[in-house]
Amino acid sequence: MRPVRFVALSEDGQALVLADEVGRLLALPIDERIATVMHAEPGAAPLAVVPAASDPIPSLSPRDIQARIRSGESAEEVARIAGVPVDRVLRYAGPVLQERAMLAQHARRTRLKGAEKPTPLAEVVNGRLSQHGIDTEKISWDAYRRDDGTWRIIATWPSGKATAQAVWDLDKLRQNVTPHDDMAQYLCAERPTPILGQEPAPERGRPRAARSVAGRA
Length: 217
Prior knowledge:
This protein is of the alpha+beta class. It folds into two domains: about 5-105, no CATH class; about 110-200 and about 210-215, no CATH class. The protein has seven helices and eight strands. Strands 4-8-7-6-5 form a five-stranded mixed sheet. The chain has a three-stranded antiparallel sheet with strand order 1-2-3. Helix 2 packs parallel to helix 4 and helix 3 packs antiparallel against helix 4 (about 85-110). It is elongated.
């Protein structure tokens, strides 16, 4: 049995936030059984913990649920695998989703590895995508941790009827990011080579060919 310690009461008051010996956060929902134990008189006999008939037992432990969420899976995907309602997964996913959001926010402010100017990643991406008529307010950022412990950063945005994305590797120690795929490389290159479907829209009243040549000059 792994030891845990009490950290705080969740913001909604519906769960106890616990931490294990390595600092990973866990959420223990306060149901009738927990409430009964918390308010039991000193010296009372311990309450046998048995699953409620209406409370399905997940096929994944809280630790497994958090690991899957941290690796980039959605709460809906994990709930389907665990065989429980989504809200049951969200009881444990909160701290991990916050961690992913914090890493993504941090990466947006991080500079590109080897770049001549220490321009934040988000500024570089916004500048390039705005040249293609993309509304930068619709760019979403996320992060996930790989099996080797490294983190990857993903930017997604609407592209016609589909969704486009770019992926970077985050070096937390050296505080920089490196393009992982072709799209990220294209967005971060100082003189990018146009790739299919990413040529900037022609300026009004100016032929595409003329603008393209001028852009390479």
